[in-house]
Amino acid sequence: MSEGKQTADSFLPFEVNLLVTLRLDYRLLSIGLFLIMTGSFMAIASLTHTNGFQALKPGGDLFQEVELAIVFCALLTVAIALQTAGHNLWKRELKALRDALRPGFQDRLDPFESGLPVTWRKAYRVASLSGLAAGIALNCVIVSQASQPLSVITEPVGIWFLTLGPILFILGARGLTDMSCQSRFVKDLIHEAADIDLADLEKLQVFGRMGLHEALSWSLIAAVLILMLAAGISSGGVGVLGIGLLTIALAIGGAVRSFWLAIQPVQRRIASAKAEKLKALRAGILKARENVGDLIALENWIASRPEWPISAPISRRLLIYVALPLLAWAGAALVDRGVNALIS
Q: What is the DSSP secondary structure assignment for residue 101, as one 8-state letter?
């Protein structure tokens, strides 16, 4: 089945379908999109402001707007990239997921051959409308609280933000819906269809890899938000610093929690299977008159089987993902210097 070709039981979100149709690497296209959006803001701002490009420099009238625009563009780009990465992850892990399921349940994964289950389409539409409503509501608040509301609506810089805001909320809501639907689907697969074979537990590590994507999504979005907070730390004092540290703590906790919730159902299934087999085996040992040594060896083998679907590479990647918010904090100064150098 060709990339992007959908079936009756599947669909592709429009943002993913766009990247698939263009047949470009989503990482390169995401970087290009970020540069285009950021460049468009700087061009509009410098061409329409009375001070021209000088207004974008540190201390200029629009310098804070430049930093905010960069964060807006980064959030929008990350939202699109994460959804596309999630789609690619499902396609890449489909065979491993099928191998991890009991016979008769593999057809549940058929929609992911070409997209997402069509039953999720309604949730995406609701998310789009909710995001649009939230974005418009925020725009109304911004305009109503501005000292000169008319200028926010009529000036190109204001129009740029008012336009991008709802788009960002729509993509954010769709991204959260995507994560929620996928998480719920994987949990149902684990509870109903996971093949718990104590002799081949390695195949269940695919669920750990799926959980890593959720942790990465949380960490990347949090990292971008931390960059926005970090931009105001030098002038915001202890209050902004405290908010930044709290955000980092919540980001790390959220990433770890999302990964934990993804793999815990697998651990419970494995632990339950081990307990059942050990109970039956120990009852047999008590009644056995011969081959007791073999039964005890089997008991020790079952007891030693790992319960968590985690390998060393998964653990290392999780540590890296958890560290992303901290790296964002540490790199905020470099980003700030880069912006200053770019527009100085």
A: B
Separation of alpha carbons 225 and 168, rounded Å: 13
pTM (two decimals): 0.75
pLDDT in tens, 52-70: 566 555 565 666 677 778 7
pLDDT tens readout for residues 262-285: 888 899 999 999 999 998 888 888
Residue that is written with structure tokens 């905020």 in the block:
332
> For 112-147, how does the pLDDT look when each residue is reduced to its tens digit (9 = 90+)?
888 889 999 999 999 999 999 988 998 888 778 766
Q: Are 6 and 23 in contact (CB under 8 A)?
A: no
Hey, is 189 helix, strand or coil? helix
Determine the pLDDT at residue 293: 83
Neighbours of 169 (CB within 10 A): 22
Six token digits for residue 270: 């494995």
Q: What is the pLDDT of residue 230?
A: 61
Residue 304 has pLDDT above 80, yes or no: yes
The residues, any chain, with a CB within 8 Å of residue 124's CB and separated by 6 or more, are: 13, 174, 177, 178
Q: What stretches of the chain adopt beta strand conformation (E)?
A: 10-11, 116-117
Spatial distance between the Cα atoms of 170 and 81, rounded to a whole number of angstroms: 15
- The residues spanned by each domain of the chain are 1-195, 215-331
Average pLDDT, integer, range 31-50:
80
Q: Which residues contact 164 (CB under 8 A, 6 or more apart)?
A: 37, 72, 73, 76
Q: CB–CB of 256/212 below 8 Å?
A: no
Residue 179 CA to residue 191 CA, distance in Å, equals 18
Amino acid identity for residue 97 in this structure: L
Residue with tokens 């430049």: 66
318 to 127, 205, 215, 255: CA distances (angstroms): 29, 13, 7, 9
In this prediction, residues 198-202 reach a mean pLDDT of: 88
